[in-house]
Amino acid sequence: MRGALVALWLSALVLSAPAAVAEGGLQYNVGTSQETPASHLIDSYEHIIETGYEDHQFAMRALMVGEIDFMLTSHLIAADSANRANMPGLSILGMVEETESYVPVARSDTQDDWGNLELLKAINAALGGIFSSSTGQQAYLTWFLGETELKDSDFVSVIGDWPTPTEGGTLYRILEGEKELVACMYNQDSPMSNLDDNAEMQGYEVEISKMVVSRMESHYEVQIPFRPLDSGGEFEAIENLRRADTCDFVMASITNSKAVSKGMRGGVPYHIEGIVLMASAESPHLDTAQGLFLSNDEGVQSDFDQRWIAIALLSVLIVYLLVRRN
Question: What pLDDT shows up at residue 148?
Answer without folding.
Answer: 86
